[in-house]
Amino acid sequence: MTKLRRCIWVDDYTQKYHDEEWGEPVYDDRLLFEMLVLESFQAGLSWVIVLKKREGFRAAFDNFDPELIKDYSQEKIEQLQTDDRIIKSKAKIVATVNNAKVFLAIQQEFGSFANYLWKFTDNKIITIHDNQLPEEYQGLAAKISKNLKKRGMKFMGEVTTYSYLQAIGVVNNHDSFCYKCQG
C-alpha cells in the first residue's frame, strides 16, 4: 500500500484537517464565518493550538452563529474570558463580536459573505506554483485585508487573511508533492 504524500506541515494531529478541509473551496457562509473566527484567534499563535480548541470554540461561540454573536453582552464577553475551552484573549473575543456585525453587514450588501469574498478572484481558485501567487493575484491578501479593515473588521491583517484564504480554498497552496496539489 502506497503512503499518500502530504504537505510538509502535516502531522498526526493535523492530517484529518488537511485531508478533509484545508484548501477545499468553501461557499457556505456559516463555515466561512467559523474559519474567520478561528483564523483571527490564531493570530500570533500556532494553528494547532486553535485546532485543538475548535470544538470548545464551537460550543462557546454558539456554533459560530454571527446573528447570536453580534449581540453578546459585556457579561457574556467576561464569561468567555474565563472559558478554558477557548483562547481567552479579551481583545480577540471583543473583535469576534465586532466581526460578526461586519460579517452580517457584508452579507446584507452582497447577498452572502461568499459572494463578497470570491469576487476578489472572479470566483476562481488561485493555484500557487513554486510558492508564488500568479502575478495578477500578487497583493490579494493585502487587498482583502484592507477592505475588511475599512469595513471595521479586527484581527484580519494581511498574514491572517492569507492564511484564511488558504484554509477556505480561495488559494490552493498545497505543496507540489502533496496528493491534494491540483496545480
From TrEMBL:
Keyword Zinc: yes
GO biological process, one term: base-excision repair
A Pfam family reported for this protein in Swiss-Prot or TrEMBL: Adenine_glyco
Highest rank taxon of the organism: Bacteria
One MF annotation (Gene Ontology) recorded for this entry: metal ion binding
Binding-site residues, Zn(2+): C7, H18, H174, C178
Keywords: Metal-binding, Zinc
Keyword Transcription regulation recorded: no
Protein name: DNA-3-methyladenine glycosylase I
Organism: [Clostridium] polysaccharolyticum
